[in-house]
Give the backbone structure.
Amino acid sequence: MDEIIEDTNVAKLLRAYPQSLEILVKYGFSPLQNPAMRKTLARTVTLRQAKKLLGMSDEKFEKMMEELKKLEKRD
């Protein structure tokens, strides 16, 4: 997978880094706990789009992105 950025597709992120689910849910992406939502919604949404859907603040989004980027370093 390429670098994790705002335009990263959520389903691709979850496929490349399954542990990212825990981070996403922690930051409010709770619909992803449902396997059906992971298979449908996650395929069509980027991190940036999900941020808008949730009404997430820029600060909270930046913190989430920092945590997600740490997953790249573990790989």
